[in-house]
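Can you please make up a whole protein chain along with its backbone structure tokens because I've never seen that pairing?
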Amino acid sequence: MAKLILSMDGLVLKEIPLRKERVSIGRKAHNDIQIDNMAISGEHAAVVTILNDSFLEDLNSTNGTLVNGQSVRKHFLKDGDVIELGKYKMKYLAEAVSPVEEAEAERSAPFRFESVSVVGSGGAATPSTASLTGVETANLPAAAIRLLSGSNAGHQLQLTKTLTSLGRPGQVAVIARRPQGYFLSHVEGAGFPLLNGQAIDSSARRLENHDLIEIAGVKMEFVLKT
């Protein structure tokens, strides 16, 4: 299980296993990780874990969030990454995987579909980590992603969960089920996903039937089931 090691001035304060799908970080008491310091916003950031992968999202904090010294809005976490919030640091330690297992996983699933139901633990909701329930999205038409290229061409994924992660470490996007529809968001990577041939920006984009998406060199089609 992945975990965060919280420290300040080199002194380890706490070890936080990432058991929850969404872990909120901030100054207010309702956060999963509360840091009672005025340099930290009330709802500062969140870590969302989808199966074996985690990504960090800054929740429009006043002073920002750094990873390895670089300011980030969204960041796919890698083993050993150091998150900085004011004077506090959190080191991300991924679950240990043997080189053989890692190589086998890469061969068998070079492009990953990963889905998860997410319920926020309080605080400001964002497009990729919004608190949704089955009731709120019950009226949404069913939808799927159909791969058009790559070794898994023809494969379909039903978009039944709140979040679906697409891509591979270093280039990741998510599709979120929201009451208003299905939305595509960029999470990690220098190259942004293409939607109908055009790179999207950092904001969420609502998907329409038969929209074409390209990420990590793989083309796919968003299909509404009518």
In short: The first strand starts at residue 3 and ends at 8. Residues 97-110, 115-135 have pLDDT under 50 and may be disordered.
